[in-house]
Amino acid sequence: MISVSKLPQTGTTIFTVMSALANEVNAINLSQGFPDYECPAELIDLVTAAMKNGYNQYAPMAGLPALRERIAAKTEKLHGAVYNPDTEITITAGGTQAIFTAICATIHPNDEVIVFEPAYDAYAPAIKLMGGTVKSLALEPPDYRIPWEMVKRLISSRTRMIILNSPHNPTGTILRKDDIDQLSIIVKNRDILILSDEVYEHLIYDGEVHESMARYPELQQRSFIVASFGKLFHSTGWKLGYCLAPAALMQEFRKIHQFLVFSVNTPMQVAIAEYLKNEETYLSLSSFFQQKRDTFRQGLAQTRFELLPCSGSYFQSVWYNNISDEKDTDFSIRLTRDFGVATIPVSAFYSKAIDYHVIRFCFAKKQETLDMAVEKLLAL
């Protein structure tokens, strides 16, 4: 007997499709968001040492206390927010698991969740699996700013959660203080949770401030904040992240977490706890990636693409109206097959596949990789 699909409209993610195509035709892969360079050698040595020293069994369900304490200290220093490492921080198997767990823990059938599109494709399926309703609001290029008056119209008695992502994937935009002010007005005196996807928190440029929900007590008290060590330390394959939330919310989060994965990579937790003692390991990331962003943008400026703003993340979006009137999916496939550079069509991040003729490149790559990609793109 064939069972009825719980996600009948969901297929293979665009990231898998484009990376597979890149491998098939041996194209430069600027599609999926992962580095093509090694994570820090010191961190690998620390993991190796942890394994040799016997840290190879289950970690505590919530994560190693030493790592949670480091995260608490880091968050307080950067944002002035106090989190109890025992009751308000949980180590997760990557940012996506934290997102799924937060949604699973709090969304009930017929609850409404506001999602801003283009959106990371893990949000909507998790909401639907819990019986919730996705209330999507499409943002437009070039700046993809949130129209807060429209958000107010989406609010109803069934609104349970608003999902935010800053710095934003795929657009590279960030929340600013006026966004925070508008958000605070909307949720005040309402039973609305916030799921804040902050996995690119340290990849923010031009002296801008990362407006974390942790910086604002009235938002912090209703927020799940998701972060990623994979994004932080160039080690996406380790699948290690964490979630911050007030104790009452974290209690519900852990009820799901314990049966979803229970606990995650012990030796890597040991290593990262030690590695985080040096603040420069994360404070230097902004300048590291801004140099890549600036160089890549300079190269792209010589092509026929039109650059969109990039204030954060390691993604650069461009318009290709000057090159083709093809659908962005068709253009992305042709770019991969015929010119040897794989990208992601941004319409894939919209539930209705809205096509603004925008594609996304990942610049978390070696300099020679980016140079070769630009050289190929100049042929367009």
TrEMBL record:
State the organism named in the record.
Mucilaginibacter robiniae
The record's section on InterPro entries has: Aminotransferase_I/II_large, Kynurenine-oxoglutarate_AT, PyrdxlP-dep_Trfase, PyrdxlP-dep_Trfase_major, PyrdxlP-dep_Trfase_small
> Does the keyword section mention Transferase?
yes
* Signal sequence coordinates: none
> Which residue range or ranges hold the Aminotransferase class I/classII large domain?
27-377
User: What's a single GO CC term here?
Assistant: cytoplasm
Q: What class of enzyme is it?
A: transferase
Q: Which family does it belong to?
A: Belongs to the class-I pyridoxal-phosphate-dependent aminotransferase family.
Official protein name in the record = Methionine aminotransferase
Q: What superkingdom does the record give?
A: Bacteria
- Enzyme Commission identifier(s): 2.6.1.88
Q: Does the keyword Transferase apply?
A: yes
Q: Which coenzymes or cofactors are required?
A: pyridoxal 5'-phosphate
Q: Which UniProt keywords apply?
A: Aminotransferase, Pyridoxal phosphate, Transferase
**One GO MF term attached to the UniProt entry:** kynurenine-oxoglutarate transaminase activity
List the lineage, top down: Bacteria, Pseudomonadati, Bacteroidota, Sphingobacteriia, Sphingobacteriales
